Amino acid sequence: MKELPIEIALDDVIFPLKKQHDFTWLQSLGRVFRVFDRQDSGNISFGVQADGVKRFVKYAGAETVRSNYDPQAAVANLRQAMPLYEKLRHRRLVRLLDYFEAGEQGYAAVFEWFEGENLGRNQPGSPFILFRQLPVKERLAALDCIFEFHAHVEACGFVAVDFYDGSILYDFATKSTKICDIDLYRQPFVNTVGRLWGSSRFMAPEEFEMGAVIDRRTNVYNMGAAAFEFVGGGRDRSLDIWEAADELYHVAVRAVEPDREKRYPSVAEFFSAWRQAQS
Q1: What are the DSSP E strand ranges found in the chain?
Q2: What is the DSSP string of 146-177?
Q3: Phi, psi of 85 (to 5 degrees)
């Protein structure tokens, strides 16, 4: 018989876990005012506040209800991601402030707080619906931020893995965009597992193919897919439901070519063509 989750209460929040867990270490960081417990990565995250300053704390080590990972595998994944936030530091990426072993067998990372909403469609009452109702110009500006960051990722010698709408934060008040999750980004590699991590709405064909190369052309596809999610029909990539200029459509549709050799050879060249089509 499947065990029912238990409820954990911390300051202003209540959330479910598979098993009891000690979060006393979190008290030293401030008062918990928000919890993010719907990730399937094995992480659970908190908004904490101390002396009027908010921070975002990502933690691995607890048995979360939606996790696909053993807690110690989640710990290993989070720990090895920390150098990425330093190597790929950028104005469009949430800023890492600290990281440390937490509790008995856990690991925590502390980030600057960003007053944005996660656009992931698995979020309760997903803000993505509201985002899609914004003027096209504002959605295109958000795409520019995403493309700018991933051109930077490429220039640093890395590729995005598990990039999807849940990796994007948007502040509706300031109209600003941040990338919030690069934990699985890595240098170009060969796919040895078949289906990689991520949302199929954003993934290139090679991200499902054992032995395929995952590189900058893969990320060109990811960027094109993001364009269709933001101003097109998602998986329906027809021109008649595309909301932006036709010139931008032609750039996006080339980016999502199933034949990787027909795509732009790099995110930088894709972004250059995208900008030119906007002028």
Answers
A1: 6-10, 13-17, 31-36, 43-50, 53-60, 96-102, 106-112, 117-118, 168-171, 176-179, 189-190, 213-214
A2: HHHHHHHHHHTT-B-SS-SGGGEEEETTTTEE
A3: -65, -25
pLDDT of res. 129: 92
pLDDT of residue 1: 45
Give the largest CA-CA distance in the chain. Answer: 61
| Token code pair at residue 169 | 């934060």
Question: At residue 123, does pLDDT exceed 80?
Answer: no
Identify the residue with better confidence: 168 or 122.
Answer: 168
Averaged pLDDT for residues 148-152: 98
Find out whether 118 and 129 touch, Cβ atoms under 8 Å: no
Residue 72: other Cβ atoms inside 10 A: 14
Strand order in the sheet with 168-171: 117-118, 168-171, 176-179
Mean pLDDT for the stretch of residues 208-233:
98
Which run of H or of E encompasses 138?
A: helix 136-155
Q: Are 152 and 102 in contact (CB under 8 A)?
A: no
Which secondary-structure segment (H or E) carries 142? helix 136-155
- Spell out a b/e string for 116-132, using b for 16 or more CB atoms within 10 Å of the CB, else e: bbbbbeeeeebbbeebe
Of 245, 251, 254, 257, which Cα lies nearest the Cα of 271? 251
**pLDDT mean over 136-165:** 98
Distance CA 276, CA 279 (A): 5
The 10s digit of each residue's pLDDT in 38-54 is 877 889 999 999 999 99
